[in-house]
């Protein structure tokens, strides 16, 4: 009998996940409240509702017979799935308590502090009328505990701006709670690791840049410029985290700030990163990132070893805008031996501001390592967006 999968998420970022499931011959149902999303066009069955309302997701799962429950590429999907999975026996999930530690920014900061993992110091508050940040020096970062893609994150340079920043930030939090943490300087990087039996079996380091919206990645490259020593130290810290939380098999994706030989863990997640991150790794490393991702959720073993060849020098750019534009056309001057574009809008559609909207994602294989490192931080300058006239 054909096994049934529920994919929780329907946007373009979930498309690679959808097709990896279909490759296996599954009946794939999709849920998500935007009927025009691409995964709904391909789905064997669609359910239209807001999956961040976990009780509705639970009702659906209780009323159907799904063999597997697969999250997509945002925290709302993952946390709703993790909560529903705690009521059933779906593979691929940690305990819901562990999911909260990893995906709630305040809980995660408490965890890193308790176990002396390298991370910014932080304090949690839901009482923004009686703020106290004694012991912390400005600048500080104010973050909703439950946001993603940098939404609601504000840098505060002095005490005078703190209350206003907290008001704005808490407005981006469904939990109406925020975390205030020390601001650390350095370069932004990500570490994507696949875990089997409590050990990292393959890992990738990516350099990242935020050049349109200050807390949303829009430029990246693989392989990374991080030194072998820093990579080993990061890997050791993440392996320790895996052991402390006794994480189940699957992906652990982490963002970090690195300054010379020091690093700080910004956040971890067990869901797939967005903006087709896996395609960048595939293009460079010659693997199948999404295939590795879905395995734990469909009760397939991860390999004990993933062979890697010589990396190609590749960049990824998410085309976005700091201002709303009634988009007509765009062009790019991104060089490369192999360039391909994933369009996300049609001519005439409104392009909202970053981090809430995006126009396209561009991938390119660059000739040399040095050229890749030079190109990646300036990819946005090679984009021209033309608005509708009149």
UniProtKB/TrEMBL annotation:
Domain ATP-grasp: 109-298
Keyword Nucleotide-binding: yes
Transmembrane segments: none
Keywords in alphabetical order: ATP-binding, Ligase, Nucleotide-binding
Coiled coil: none
A molecular-function term among this protein's GO annotations: metal ion binding
Protein name: ATP-grasp domain-containing protein
Species per Swiss-Prot/TrEMBL record: Candidatus Endonucleibacter bathymodioli
